[in-house]
Amino acid sequence: MKYVVVLGDGMADWPLEELKGQTPLSYAKTPVMDSLAAVSEIGMVPTIPEGMAPGSDTANLSVMGYNPRKYYTGRSPLEALSIGADMKDSDVVYRCNIVTLTEEDVPYEEQTIVDHSSDEISTEEADVLLKDVLEALKEDSGETVPTGYEPDKYDFYTGTSYRHCMIWDHGEVLELTPPHDVLTQKIGQYLPSDPVLRYMQKRSYEILKNHPVNLKRKEKGLNPANSFWFWGAGTKPALTSFEEMYHKKGVMISAVDLLKGIAVGAMMDRIIVEGANGGLHTNYEGKAAAAVKALTEDGYDFAYIHVEAPDEMGHQGSIEKKVKSIEFLDDRLIRHVKEGLDASGEEYRMLILPDHPTPIRVRTHVAEPVPYLLYDSTAPGKHTWHYNEKEAAGGGVTVAHGWDLMNYLFSR
Length: 412
Known about the structure:
alpha/beta; Alkaline Phosphatase, subunit A; 2 domains; 15 helices; globular
């Protein structure tokens, strides 16, 4: 038996007037998922432990079978594992987004955050911006810098697109707000209380707002990547081996460092798919092909296919693009996975679900149960339901905790 999880990040949503009371998932044309639902179990599962923040970090740990209350030490350390950062037990790791702020003639604290992803800036552009800011920060001195400013205590690592990491030697874990939680708001009340972190964010804006890369982006009608934004602090993680826990050889297929970092921590292999970028126009077909090959030719028992696009479109507040991302997931990924596994003759179980909802109306994550679909090629059922939030809630099955899903998936 082979096993596969298809995770549409942030795919669940709330009913929208613009869609005549439907969610993007129920409105989207998803013939493959709907045909699977008709022969599958559907239901709801809470992926976020009560009282914990509804992030892709806690939610994906949960779906992969790791109780976040036991294993979660912060988001950024997981991403740092993927990037290959050298972490000590005394280090504190922060996510460093490169975001878009308004460029109004007002103090930095009164700027408004426009875009947490800077129009999904390319990794190549972001790397140039990151390095230029760091070079300038290392040269800063004198009365303009805060007391205790020691640039050598802060190491930065380029990640993917707008997502990067900063490691603070003997640092402090500060509760900072994710930029996607405060879109369209003035940033003053959300800036770090630590004077050095606050200084580095402000300096990054001074350096980046007229940077040649950003001037070219604005000429193209793209949002400039004009400020660092620190958040997601945590310490070095320690996950139990996935194979040791479940006796399955697993592989991760994702474009984002968070999921690749979870895989590193879980001692799972990773497949890097060319053209997979975490955006709407990622390489869906390439991910599907990689999963089928891993399961049918390369000796893997389990594949976790993560697609970031629905979450990104939710954060952007684009109904049209979120619907399109779900349709792409259905037609360009799930269809190919099913066809490939069916053609191979392998028996398999496939679990399809989001990690958390990212409702268009709020443009951020919420801690509500999510709909899942569990297909078993050896035991097809016969139902009339489709795969969406409303019908899954009436499917009659609720898995108690997200971290129970792996045992549930592997139970047959």
